[in-house]
Design goal:
Strands 2-10-9-6 form a four-stranded mixed sheet, with no helix packed on it. The chain has a four-stranded mixed sheet with strand order 12-20-19-16, with no helix packed on it. The protein is elongated, with a radius of gyration of 60 Å. It has 13 domains: about 35-120, Immunoglobulin-like (Sandwich); about 120-200, Immunoglobulin-like, CATH 2.60.40; about 205-285, Immunoglobulin-like (Sandwich); about 290-370, Immunoglobulin-like; about 370-450, Immunoglobulin-like; about 455-535, Immunoglobulin-like (Sandwich); about 535-620, Sandwich (Immunoglobulin-like), CATH 2.60.40; about 625-700, Immunoglobulin-like (Sandwich); and more. The chain is built from one helix and 130 strands. With about 1100 residues, the chain is mostly beta strands. The two termini are about 25 Å apart. InterPro entries: Big_2, Invasin/intimin_cell_adhesion.
Amino acid sequence: MEQIKQRQLRNILLAFVILMWGTIGTNPVLAATSSEDLSKLVLSSNELTLAIGDSAAISAYGIYEDGTSEDLTYYADWKSEDGSIASVYNGTITAKAEGKATLIASYGSYAQTIQVEVTKKVKALTKDKQTLELRKGTTASIGLTATYTDNTTESVAAKADWSSTDESIATVLNGTVTGVAAGTVTITGTYGGKTVTVTANVEVAKRLDASQTSVSLLQNESQTITLTATYADGTTKEVTSDAVWSSSNEAVADVLSGTIKGYSAGTATITAQYGTKTVTIAVDVDKTQKLTVDEQNVFLRVDKTQQLTVTAVYPSGTAADVTESAVWSSSNEAVAYVSKGLITGIASGTATITAKYGTKTVQVTVNVEIVNLLEASSEEVTLSAGGTGKVTVKATYIEGTTEDVTSKAVWTSTDSTVAFAAKGTITAYKMGTAQITGTYGGKSVAISVSVDVPSKVSTSSKEINIQKDEVYYADLIASYADESEKVMTEKATWTSDDTSVVTVNKGVLTGVAYGTATVTAAYGGKSVALTVHVENVRRIEASSTDVALFIDESETIQLMATLTDGTVKDVAQEAVWSSTNEQVAYAAKGVITGYTSGTATVTAAYANQKVTIYVSVDQTKKLKASETSLFLDTDETFRATVTAMYPDGTTADVTSQAVWSTSNGAIATVYQGLITAEAPGTASITATYSNKSVTITVDVDVARHLDPSDDQLDLRAGSQHTLTVIATFADGSQEDVTSKAEWSSDNEEVAYVAKGSVAAYAMGEAVLTASYGGATVDIPVTVDLPVKIRASEEELHLDVKEEAELLIYARYSDNSEADITGKVEWSVKDDGIAEVINGTITGIATGSTTVTAQYGEKSVTIPVKVGLSASLEANVPLVTMGVSDTYQLVITAVDEDGNETNVTDKAVWKSSKAAVAGVKKGLVTAYSKGKANITATYGGQSVVVAVEVDQVARIEASITSASLKSGGSVKATVTVVYSDGNKKDVTALAEWKTSSYKIATVSGGVITAVGSGKTNITAKYAGKTVRIPVEVDLLKYLETSYVNIALKVGEQLQVQSTATYKDLSEVDVTKHALWTTSRAAVATAKDGLIKATGKGKASITVAYGDKKVKLNVIVS
């Protein structure tokens, strides 16, 4: 130590001399260290290999004769014999060109050399394997190729530095890896500053199987387990002795090379590990075979007790009471407490009592005052406002006992403004419904309360027939749950769907005009409909349609109206009567009076129906024949008589006085009323007496057949049609016998016929029959039977609770159409999706169903979609991911109007390959490499999004590194190469990150330098990442205008600092560099200005970028 102090003193004296010398004009910057007692100079390294552009620092140390040493790096002289290959400054060597150079460090009379080899710069280092699969003792080689900056390549496996993360598993030499033991390691190869890694699996099994996964043993009993390993190539091997075995509880069971032995009662888990795989075996060691308890379920009242007994059964079959020895516990001591098997009920609830003995346990369920069933004395209560009702509640406990808990229960009402309950007493306040709930012991019972609400409403008559201007007093009867009834006619709400036909006021119906209307009475949420017919007459018929009168003679005609309900009444008084010639005949209220000789037609009209009566008036006689028509066979005779009627009412037989004639003597002849059939055909026999004539139609031989004008009819309800019938006789002659034929209908509710005039009444079918001369003919008639029916909409799309009106049209054989919406029968396939009332469709719940309209034998079905979308769209059609990545899909439903709704959370999601990619509420998670389809279903529509996991082969950056100055920037692009070889620029899509925002930032591939240092810019896409090393303000070297400085106290010296970048550009960084001093009491530094503040020695450090320069300052 003393020698070091003396050497330092000499150095100070020497420095003083030098300073003195400097005062007379010499340079003040001189070496401050003497070498006179230096024994040798050593370097930190005498050999060095560098790549072009790289730098390395060498330290020089002086070893003195006294054995001490000193760092002389900054005091030594450094030079290169070939500066074009390698240069040196203050021990920092910079490689410039490929080749070898010798560098010399000297201090005083001592010198050392460094052999420097400069190699080409490695741009990339690639391997030929990603992973290795090895068995113990086997080897595999990794090929390593270096790509230099001049784009030449070289195999460098033998030159690289290799290492293994665990040489107990695998070793590596010159790229050759040898398997040592089971396991996984990472092999690292480094060359030219670049590194590659390869995963090596040694004896790594794909699966490991044990011969048994559970074992039950008695104490001191053993059992051997075998292990089988299955490798990636499908081969298997027993590895029982190679595995590492362990026990979770060696006091219970232990294992040695697969043999498990039981030591004491209890359970243990045996684990076998082989390579990276493990398998477990559950072991149960116990001499107790089973544990039993005398009760499995216990019911207690609060503060009551019950004793349990637990028995242990051993393998020998013997048993022992272990109640006292067992360990007892309760899952809920607030409900039930147990001590040595004695259970005490604490509070209502359920608890599980557990008894444990050895490793066996037994459990008992304890119910303390648990209600199994709660029943009300009445589930429905009907009250009047202001009234009260009493309900009792009975609890049935779990063990079967019962108790009235009316006063203990908690009572609530869904609408206390309607009804309120307390301790079972229900008080009604106003009309409405409410649900009263009684709750006790975790159970509830509901009582429906109706206040002044009828269970149904009815009326005395649902179908009413009234006359125009007539009133009808309808009633409304409300029936209640207690079977009582009240007349609520005046309190009900009455409406008519057609006030032009019927009006209604508080049940009083008034007929306004002919027609039918529906009157509805509503009360207490219930309603009833009444069908009201006002003068709805199906047809009218006169008692006589041919009247003969004398002058001033009258005849009363009955006018019978058949109503829609089938009743018949005489409406002669109400009908409107008219005459075509009132001077001949006048009619009023059914009475026809003859005034002058002649004929007239009288019409009676009632309720849109009409009938005509032909009237003949004469002041003289009236002639009547005994027959108006005859049907005779050839040669058959018939005697007809003729009677004359006089104005005074007397009559006389004038058969013999009348003049008889025939229209066709070949068919029929007549003599004084005796008619003889001569030949087939028809003839008219006429008797004339006193200017009056009467005619008898004679048909000889019955008609062979009848031919109607229409073979069938298709009519509308309310319409009329005239049929004619032609009879064809034996001689081939024909005659229109429409008015002579007898007509009938087999269904007069559908169609009625008289003298060929057909009236259609209601939808259906009927057969009209015409009979004449022994021949008949049938004419089928359909009324309102369409060829087809159609709906106004082919398909309906509704939202839930939305309504839509459907119209149904019938198309008939004549191509006409009619709206029959109110006449069809409606049905719906699924009334949980939609409902239909009189053509109004209402959406109930999301789904599809059909609505059917039935009309006669025809029907039409309309698909109805409720809450279903017109289309479904995903935000992307394809998602490319890496394993463990997630991606949120967004699904949009588009309705018929183009409105969009985000239904991501509502859709039903499914993955075609859950092992590749799973999905939950649109969040896709990648699990393994592969492809899958993600399907989203909503509103009856589905959309599929393809997912590709780790399908990108690699990702490449346009630049592999960047060296920037502060404020500078560079643009990097990223390209992905897919497994099929296709490429894509994903610069804008990639996820860009920087490892240090203080050094460099990145946005869209644009890298901007911020501050000095090194950082990594990464771009990630589809699970692949590329890294771009970035250097900011990294220098080749940093120099100062002075290295060794000698000053006197108070003096100052301006030092300049120059940075040389890797592109060999130089910048004065004096103002930007960081200047620090080791001893501010000796010297300070700021912006290169060195000030001597006190005597002594100090070191000034200049730092800029990644470089530092050390200045030695001596102040005297």
